[in-house]
Amino acid sequence: MRDESILLGQVEGFISVLAQCQALGITVASARENELILELPYTEKIIGNPDTGVIHGGAITTLMDTAAGAGVLCALPEFELCPTLDLRVDYMRSARPDQPVYARASCYRVTKNIVFMRCEAYQVDRTVAHCVATFMRMGAKGIPSLEHMTKGTQIPEFTFNENTRSQVSLKDLRASALATKDFEPLISAIPYASYIGVELDGEPAAGFYKLNRQPSNIGNPILPAIHGGVLGGFMEMASMLHLLATQPGGVIPRIIDFSIDYLRAGLDRDTFVHCEVTCQGGRVANVEVHAWQQRREKPIALARAHFLLE
C-alpha cells in the first residue's frame, strides 16, 4: 500500500501548478491508491446557460480530464505525468446550480504505453456525467523537474461587467443575433464563453471560432500548453454556438455526449476551430469540430458532439 499522505501531497502539488485548476478553484478532496476525488466549486464564471445558471459542459470536461490525468498518479507506482490521448464524456443530466461538482477517477488498465482511466462527475444526490480516457505513458520524459512542479502562475481574477450577464433570455439574444448578424452580445452573455475567451471568427453561419490566448487556460506549465479540458470546452462551446447560428427554431441545444482526440499539444497561443453539422434528425444533431493553431492543415484536436434539439 502506498502512503496516502505522500500521495495526497503529490496530487495537490500537481494540481497547484495547473493555471486552469487555480482559476476554477479545483481542489483535492481525497487521494488514495487508484482513486482520486476532486472538487469543483460552483462559481458564476462556469455558467453555460445564464437563464438557468447551469454549469457549462466544458467546465465538467475540464474537471474530469484533470481528475483522470491526476488520477494516473494514484495508479502508477512512481510519479509520472501522462498526456491525454482521447476522452469521451457522456452527460447524464445537468449539474444543479449553486452546488459543487465532484469527480472520482480510477484506473482500469495499465500497459507499457497506455493508461486507461474512468471518471464519474457527481453532486451529492446525482450523477452528472461519466467519462473514459486514455493517457500516453512518457517514461522518464514524464517526470518533471522540481523547478517546473513548483512554478506558480498568477491568475488575474475574472470579473463580470454589465455586458457579460444579460437580463435578456438566451432565446431572445439568439433571435436578435440572427436578425442583426451580430453574435457578440449572445457570446458575451454566456459566462463560460467569456471566461475562457471564445469569440466568433468570421460570418456566424461559417462555423469558425477563436479561443484567445490567456494565462488562465494553461494546463501544462512545462511546454506551456492549453489545458485539455479547456480545449474540449472550447470545441463543445463552439459546437453549441454553431447550432444556435444555423439551426431553425428557438430551442437551446443540450449536450448529450462529447468525444475528443488530442493529436498534438495545444501550445500557449490563439486557437481556432471549424464546426460542421454532419447529421441532424428531428431531435438530435451531430457536430464535428476541427481545432488548429498556426495551420489549419495541422490540427491539434478533433471532436464530435451530439446535441438534443428539443
Write the layout of secondary structure elements.
Elements: H1 4-16, H2 19-24, E1 27-32, E2 35-40, E3 47-49, E4 54-55, H3 57-75, E5 84-91, E6 101-110, E7 114-123, E8 126-136, H4 146-149, H5 170-180, H6 184-188, H7 191-196, E9 198-200, E10 208-211, E11 218-220, E12 225-226, H8 228-246, E13 254-262, E14 271-280, E15 284-292, E16 301-308
Antiparallel strand pairs: 1-2, 2-6, 3-4, 5-8, 5-13, 6-7, 7-8, 9-10, 10-14, 11-12, 13-16, 14-15, 15-16
Helix pairs in contact: 1-3, 3-8
Description:
This protein has 8 helices and 16 strands. The protein has 310 residues and is an alpha+beta fold. The longest helix has 19 residues, at 57-75. The model is unreliable at 150-156 and 161-165 (pLDDT under 50).
Structural class: alpha+beta
Poorly predicted ranges (pLDDT <50, ≥5 residues)?
A: 150-156, 161-165
Global geometry:
globular
Separation, N- and C-terminal Cα atoms: 50 Å
Q: Number of helix segments? A: 8
Biggest pleated sheet? 12 strands, antiparallel
Computed CA radius of gyration, to the nearest angstrom: 19 Å
What share of the residues does DSSP label as strand, in percent? 25-35%
Question: Based on DSSP secondary structure assignment, what is the total number of beta strands?
Answer: 16
* Spatial strand sequence of the major β-sheet: 1-2-6-7-8-5-13-16-15-14-10-9
Order of helices and strands: HHEEEEHEEEEHHHHEEEEHEEEE
Helix content: 25-40%
Task: State mean pLDDT (0 to 100 scale).
Answer: 90
